Structure formats: C-alpha cells, structure tokens
Predict the structure of Acetylxylan esterase.
Amino acid sequence: MLWRRNLFAPLAALALALTASAGAGTAAAATDTTVAAAAPAASAADDFGAPGPYATAVEVGAITTLYYPRDIADSDRRHPVIVWGNGTGGVPLVYRDLLLHWASQGFVVAAANTPMSNLGISMRASIDMLTGRNADPGSVFFDRVDLEHIGASGHSQGGAAAIVVGSDPRIDTILPIQPGPLANINAVRVPALLLAGQRDSIVFPALVKAFYNAADHIPALYGEVRGADHFTVVGDPGPFAAPTTAWFRAHLMGDRTAGAQFFGPGCGICTDTATWSDVRRNSLALNVPAATP
C-alpha cells in the first residue's frame, strides 16, 4: 500500500533517533521501569493541554509499553485505560510525550510495541495483560486499573487500528488520529472523535471525513487541526494534547467540563477557530448533552 510505504521511512528514522537519544536503559530490558520527572500541580480544570497532577512511570514490556501514574499502587482510585496503536514503522517512543501527558492526567496508557498495528491484535492483548496485572496481588497495578472504562487511540495505521479495536465490547470510545484507510467504522458501536491535519499530505483530510460520514450510527465528531501535517503529533504533540485529553476525560472519567468541549450548545472546539480549521458533529453527537457525554 502506498500510504504504508510513504509513512514507514520517516517514522522509522525518527524512532531510531529517539531511541538513541533516550539511551539504552529505557527500552532494552523487557521488564525495565523508568520514572519520569514529577508533574507540576494540577492546572485549571479546562487547561487540558497542561500536565496533570500525577508523576509518571514507564514500563517497557515485550508486547506493550505502559505509561502510568508512578504511585498507582498507593492511589485511592482506579485509573481508566487508553490502548494505543503506532503509525507504520513507529514505536511508542515516537509518541512518548503524548502518552506521558495522558498518564499525568491519571490514565494507564498501554501502547502496543508493534510497528504494524492495523489489525489491533497487540492492542487487544494489552487489555488482556492489564486484566491479569489488575488481578495480581503482587503487581503495582493490583485493583488500581479501571477496566470498565477503556478508550482506543492511535496515529495513522494505528488510528485505523483504533477503529478496528472499536468493535471490541471492552472499548468505550475511540479517538483515531489521522487514521489510515484499512478499517471499517461500521463495526464500531461507541462514540468517536476523528482527527485530521489540515496540511496532511499522507492521510488527506478527505479520507478522515469519509470515516466521519460513514459513522452516522454513533455519536461522531470530526476535527481538523489547523496547520497540522501528518507528523505534528509526533514528539511534542502540540495542538493534539488538549483535545485528546479532554475527550478521554469526558468519556472515561465523566469530566463534565471536558465534555463541554465537544457536546451541548457551548461546544468549545466548535468556536476555537485558532486551533481548528474544520469541526463537524453528526446528528447523534448534537443530541448528546454537555454534562453527560
């Protein structure tokens, strides 16, 4: 497929560069755990692009890399899950900043290590793995993972994988970022936020709109990030950090302020023309109250 060939080289090169700069200790051992710097205090409730209140940790496994609140074992709550799929040729390290940002907000992020994620096999395996870790009294995740609230996301080929995995009954919402074409959104039965880049020349906005247009059976939104190309989300996620965080906080944490970014007459992203070049909500999304996404 042409879109796969076009994407492989730049993501693979970037992954190698980031791996080298991170040092061998971060990704070498199957059970290695690394701890990120502590996040600052919680920011204003509606500043979803700011770091959350949790210090974060990383655990690199054979199939999945976990990004999670560092002190999860001592947490007084269960933390919802986001499963992640990489773009073609990519690895979780390429998207580290975004995945750590979500972890700082209180999510357990399970990123499939595979550079060919389209079938969603590793993403589903990540849920199985976390289910086992949550039930293991010897695990730091014991009884701290909220398996009743799971979202799926990914970039490019991984965005298509998020749509594929969206048919899994364990998934509560999907957020495909610039998704490749090899997916069938008709099988999805949960709310979807489909993100495109205005200047994306690999996954054209029209391809993402096609998924949105086909998603007339679920609450679906289309957001086109102004000025973004296919690799804007790589490294520093920039304009993708806040809306993705708000979407998952709304659907997996019941955050009403976050829900108002997408639903109800206020619809924060609908009036933010500095960030968005195009925002669309289908009829089912228009009927979702802001307070109850």
Observations:
- The chain has one domain: 2-286.
